[in-house]
Design a protein that fits this description.
The protein is mainly α. The protein has four helices and four strands, in the order E-E-E-E-H-H-H-H. The chain has one domain: Ferritin, core subunit, four-helix bundle (Ferritin). Helices cover about 60% and strands about 10% of the residues. The chain has a two-stranded antiparallel sheet. It has a two-stranded antiparallel sheet with strand order 3-4. The protein is globular and about 50 Å long. The N terminus is likely disordered.
Length: about 160
């Protein structure tokens, strides 16, 4: 964002304003507080989505192969996202959130939801994911973080479609 003073563009916000909030990272990566917060939040969301989607996938009817494939893609996406976020946290020597684990969802519980409801749930979660990734992209100043969220937006759009 720029404002103009005497025909010269001057940045309204400069990188220097963030110096107190910037965390030095190995490999010359710097993350701000909002970037760390968005990663932490995304980790929690993906760990929850992984458990819920795994449960739902386990109970889908056999004849709904197309829905099963969509859930497999969603599960793979969550697993990949968790690995990538863990990599970010490891590189900055930041603790990895506990997140939701296999102990939080009993996959052998009898089926609770219809296949239609499971698909509707996944549809709603992709909408929320797109929103969260878009917001995270707008608060990210680190190029690598922006690329990460840009990729997540594209991945989620593919799942949504």
């Amino acid at each position: 964002m720029y404002y103009y003073r005497e025909k010269t563009a001057v940045p309204l916000i400069t990188r220097d304003l963030y110096k107190e909030d910037v965390l030095e990272i190995n490999h010359n990566i710097k993350l701000t507080g909002p970037e760390i917060t968005s990663l932490w939040t995304q980790y929690q969301s993906d760990s929850l989505n992984l458990r819920v989607n795994t449960y739902m996938h386990h109970h889908l009817e056999e004849e709904n192969e197309a829905i099963k494939l969509i859930f497999q893609d969603a599960i793979a996406s969550s697993e990949n996202n968790l690995r990538e976020i863990e990599s970010f946290f490891n590189r900055i020597h930041y603790p990895i959130p506990q997140g939701f684990t296999e102990h939080d969802v009993n996959i052998d519980t009898p089926k609770l939801f219809s296949d239609h409801l499971c698909l509707k749930y996944l549809h709603e979660m992709t909408i929320h994911g797109l929103s969260a990734y878009s917001v995270a992209l707008t608060v990210s100043t680190c190029g690598e973080m922006r690329k990460f969220y840009e990729d997540k937006v594209h991945d989620t759009i593919k799942l949504y479609n």
